[in-house]
């Protein structure tokens, strides 16, 4: 029953007394102002444009003053360490995003229902992927949370306002106070096409489901990108040092603060995160829904990945990898229990086991060597180039920030930890030019 008072009050001030067409007009005005938030430095002493309605301008300026600051407990050294880990895992991060973090996001039924209505995600899966990347990259690039030229804080406080706008539309007004009588909002016929009308007409039972995009859902989603990512590395035999794991969790917690998540809903160690994540997931699963969108969302995600695998016998590998990383309970929730041909399953299981054994043996002579890392990086490269860095539909980021992302991902083509022959073989798997003499 708790959401985000700062963002909710801001949106309530902006949308108060408006019908749906007027809400759409005001949200459009807000989006035009948000387009100017292209770096953390811009937020210092930010003022709305002269064309902005005075009421909207005053609400946004007050919001920026309060939302842009990092928590007092943020540690610069831990954030820098997390940024270095992200740069090191590079393309592998994208594989885990697709096969672990996003699938785990879909597990909570009411959260999936909001994602479904907000994006029509079965038909526009890449929208969710690209929107997620548009926040993750600015946060985890060097200086993303602290440097004036970084864009992590600017992107995060935009997302925070989006969450509040979704809540306002679904609830057809500001979230109710805890002392108010709560009545279910019945669904109604949409007043027109588009996402705003769909959210407004959806209906919501606050007494049963709590507030949409509430604190528990936000905390759970934050864990899918921090804890689930680190858990995925462990599952692949690529565990980071404990100090690096804790630094990554710390950086995500700092982001969580900027997103309006309460510190009590955060974890600072992997063991704490496991307990918190499992508890939130167990509670979230209890929601009963007439229509369960989760299998459709998961199927659409798997299909998008399968399209990028050139060999037909390997197109089931995303499903098998997701099963491995997320476990049988999540696979069942998401409908990823469909039969996969025995030879494909055997090839996947043999490949996973053989590479783990081969890695362990070769590391005795070549520290840091990993076939698993090579294969998952190759798959991640295909996903990055097809989904995130496609020049025909660039990420929705400011030009300077988009240039930073492009430069960083270009540098990820070759693994600095691996010998040149490994990079050449990885390049063949990924379908890109092999490194030349003198390159890593």
Automatic annotation (TrEMBL):
Pfam families from the UniProt entry: MPAB_Lcp_cat
Domain of life: Bacteria
GO MF entries: oxidoreductase activity
Domain ER-bound oxygenase mpaB/mpaB'/Rubber oxygenase catalytic residues, every copy: 119-348
InterPro entries: Lcp-like, MPAB/Lcp_cat_dom
Name the UniProt record assigns to this protein: DUF2236 domain-containing protein
Lineage, highest ranks first: Bacteria, Pseudomonadati, Pseudomonadota, Betaproteobacteria, Burkholderiales
